[in-house]
Design brief:
27% of the residues are buried. Helices cover 51% and strands 9% of the residues. The N and C termini lie far apart (98 Å). α2 crosses α3, α8 crosses α10 and α12 crosses α13.
Length: 330
């Protein structure tokens, strides 16, 4: 019986085979990223560049690679100073401001979740107070719809963008937050910016409710919202008599003001709604019933849209200006 012996590979042959294996892997789908990840993670973490860390972990941070405390980064402190100058928000120290700008994806311990919740409630309080006082006859469902229009996240994201919030907020693209229709693993910067903007209102409210109120009036209530589009007036013809009776006014009646083309294919009727001698609404339509319905809607809209313009709000007297306490809002 004879035995065959096989020579052991030399070091040169072994290195050559590893090189051929590495080259072959570069042509296999998805292995290029694995190789780059292995190369990046093989270096000590403390010396990884920001680009290498993003490539290796898929995370995104506005500031550098491994800085735990954002305020230890001179670059971030400079960005924060520019932000405070642009937004006019001065809290006396940077700690509370950084907390308001820190998303839970960046730091699970100290983040802006609680401040964002407080800020959203405070913003809705001040918006509700303003709309409730300016439009004293507005129905509750319209009031709720208008407040939502002023304080929805899309609006706060735009406000945050205008103030420069995305440049200083701290977050990681870890897939924790997604919008409907987004691909898995994608984080929406707008959602994070909206939460940070709410958190800024929250931290202002903690320091001084008056400062938070000023912020809401300056950046949220300064927007134009078409209040009339939020009214639901489907039952205008039956509801209008109840309103007139409650106000002690004569029962409303419809009167034809003028018409054209009654016998044509395109007639137009103009109908007025009168309470006694007072015309309280008018509307047109291709039929008498359509014109009458529009006239009733017009009368109800005028009633509900009574705008007091300048009103005294409860918060104007309840909150004291604490701006001398190290807090400023320009």
């Amino acid at each position: 019986m004879s035995f065959r012996t096989r020579a052991l590979p030399t070091l040169t042959q072994h290195a050559s085979s590893r090189l051929r294996l590495a080259r072959s892997l570069t042509h296999v789908p998805n292995t290029q990223h694995l190789l780059s990840q292995l190369r990046a993670t093989s270096r000590p973490r403390a010396y990884m560049t920001e680009a290498a860390q993003v490539e290796a972990t898929g995370s995104r941070r506005p500031l550098g690679s491994t800085v735990e405390d954002p305020l230890s980064s001179k670059e971030y402190v400079a960005k924060l100073s520019a932000f405070t100058a642009r937004s006019g928000i001065e809290l006396g120290s940077d700690g509370p401001l950084v907390e308001a700008l820190t998303h839970v994806s960046y730091r699970r311990t100290t983040n802006n979740q609680r401040l964002s919740y407080l800020g959203e409630k405070a913003a809705k309080l001040f918006v509700t107070e303003q709309i409730f006082s300016r439009y004293p006859k507005l129905p509750a469902d319209a009031l709720e719809s208008i407040v939502k229009s002023y304080t929805e996240r899309r609006v706060l994201a735009n406000i945050g963008k205008a103030l420069g919030v995305p440049a200083v907020m701290l977050w990681q693209n870890s897939g924790a937050v997604k919008q409907e229709g987004q691909k898995e693993g994608a984080m929406n910067e707008g959602v994070i910016s909206a939460k940070a903007t709410f958190a800024l209102i929250g931290v202002l409210y903690q320091k001084s409710p008056l400062a938070a109120r000023k912020f809401v009036h300056a950046h949220i209530l300064s927007r134009d919202v078409d209040v009339e589009t939020h009214l639901k007036l489907q039952g205008a013809k039956s509801y209008l008599p109840l309103i007139m009776r409650e106000r002690g006014k004569p029962r409303p009646v419809s009167r034809l003001i003028r018409e054209s083309g009654r016998l044509s294919t395109s007639p137009v009727f103009l109908v007025g709604i009168y309470s006694g001698a007072e015309k309280i609404g008018e509307g047109y339509g291709s039929s008498l019933s359509e014109a009458e319905f529009r006239a009733a809607k017009n009368a109800l809209s005028k009633h509900f849209m009574t705008d007091l313009k300048k009103v005294e709000l409860p918060s104007e007297h309840d909150f004291v200006d604490d701006s001398d306490d190290g807090l400023q809002l320009q």
